[in-house]
Amino acid sequence: MESIKNYVEGFIRLTGISGNAVPIVRHISLVLIAILLAWAAGALCKKLIILLYAT
User: Fold this and answer.
1) pTM: predicted TM-score of the whole model, two decimal places
2) C-alpha separations of 18 from 13, 22, 31 in Å
């Protein structure tokens, strides 16, 4: 989680966002990354389960 937070902080610095928008962008980015990771984990697990039951 710490590495994801560091990545988001670097992204915010890279884009030049500052002021009151930083916490909003940070939270939105963290939520989107969490959703993407959950989706990827779900897809991977589904493929593994299907593969295991197919053999």
Assistant:
1) 0.73
2) 8, 6, 19
